[in-house]
Each structure stands twice: as structure tokens, then as C-alpha cells.
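As a warm-up, study this chain.
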Amino acid sequence: MSTIDVSVVVCVYTEDRWEDILAAVASVRAQTHPALETLLVVDHNPTLLDRLRSEYKETDEVQVLPNAGPRGLSAGRNTGIAASHGEVVAFLDDDAVAERDWLRRFADPYSDPRVLAVGGRAVPVWSSGRRPDWFPEEFDWVVGCSYRGLPPGRVRVRNILGGNASFRRSAFQFVGGFATGIGRDGSKRPMGGEETDLCIRLSRARPDAILLMDDRAVIHHKVPEGRERFGYFRTRTYAEGLSKALVARSVGVDKGLETERRYTTRVLPAGVVRGLRDLLLARPGGARRAGAIVAGVLHAAGGYVVGSMRARRAGTTFAVVPISLDDVERAA
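Now compare it with the structure written out below.
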């Protein structure tokens, strides 16, 4: 078994997910490769902060911290990184549970010093009990999960997915933390892209860096009923286009859209063909899946165009927080 110490950061923001938060922490505490610590970072919600501190006041391996930066997921993650002690920092969404060997799958590749990040697979847990027949697997990223088109096994990737991710803690010395100004910030619009930006900056700073995806590091991610609807699908794909425009502005179009080109020119057309084939075979939802793929592409493209125009007009900038691993003020 790997002797790598892993700190786990779970960013939380609402009491509406109370049971989900408890389940996420319980899954971390049940790992075959024990976590060094679990850091619950609360995003500007004093009531939730007090309640969680009361819940875990007698549990030494669970720490509850306030987000020390501006509202949003990036600053919450940065707070967790600054407060962590493990050689590796793993991130788990607050509405997900990890399988028992999740941390072991993350820890093992770090025996190679060139490995600076390892991501895993997120499996959707549909509130209705099953996938809506119109919802294409190619768009499971809409609900924070791994999608059809990702390479299988343990493979090198451009970026890992943020809700099921780990980084060597020293990686943040090279590039700082997650950029604020990209990703979710407490607004109602479901933005993303902050982990893509970080991974691209990391590869630029360390050309020898290895970033891996291992589909055996599995979490099960809850999909609430509201996210099973086409209205959310439309909103999220548009927001992803806005996010990609910000990432492209931050790291450049070539790197910012490198993976997306293959996805839109190979994976999605194959999904449309599959949906039309299912229509011909009288399988439920075939035409609707094909239509959802086309709609998703159009909304994402529209978001990208609008986001690019806004960024140029506003002169959008991003703040990258430097995180010192030697002399850091621990979050209170």
C-alpha cells in the first residue's frame, strides 16, 4: 500500500445538502487508504459553519473551516489547500460519495515524482432512479459526472475533472491556486472551468508534469431532480460556453480548446448517429438524445461567443492566489 499522505477537501455552501455532506465525509472516513485529514470548507454561511463544527467537534480527523477568500468554489478550494498537511490534496464534491478504494487509486501513481495530478470517474446517481431517456451520456459533464468519450483506464490527460480530483501539494507552489473569476462563485449561473485553467497552467510551468485520469477512482455523484430537466441542461451548456471563453482568455485558445475540438468533431457526431440509429430501431429517446446533443452544442457555442465578446469588452482579468507550502497562515 502507498504511504502517501492525502488530505481531502470538501467545499460546502448550503444546509440543503446536510445529509449529502455527512454522507460524503462518511465515505472519506471509510477509505481503505485512510485520509490524513478531511477539511470541510464552508462558503460564507455562518449557520452551516457552526452546525458542522458542532457535528464534528469530537472528530479530530475532520476540520471545519470558513472560506478565507471571496465567495465561490475556487477560493474555497484554495482555503483547503492552504490549511492542508498532506503530500497530496484530493477534492470531493459535497453531494458525492467515494468508493472505498478511491484514495488508494489516487495515491498509488504519486510514487512517480513526475505525477502532479490524478483524477477519477464520477458516476451519476439520478434522483428519479434512472437516466432520463433524452439525456445523452456524452453530456454527463452537465451534471458533474464523467461522460462518454473520455479515455478508459489510467491515461494521461490535459486536465482532470474538479469534483473528483487530486493534486500533489507541491504543484500549487509552481502555479498558485485555483483562479478566482473562473468557475462557480455563488451566483445562480452554473459556471465551471477552473480546474481546466489550473491544469493547463501547471503543464506550462512544468512541461515534464504527468496528469492522469484513472477510471477506477470512482465516486457516485447525486443528480437532483432539477438537473434532470432540459431547462437545466440548456442553462448549463450555455454557462459552459461562457466558462470556456474565460479559460481561453486566461491560457490561450490553442490550449483552452484543445480537448474540446476532438469532443465536438468526433464524440458528439458519433452520439448523434447513435441516437438516430436508436430511433430507427424504435428504442426510447433516440431522436431526443440526438436533438439534445445538437441543442447542447448550439447553446455552448452561443455562450462561448457571448463570453468572448464580454471578456474583450470588459478586459476580464483573473486572480491567482499564491499558496506557500512552507510558511502559510493556516485557515482558522
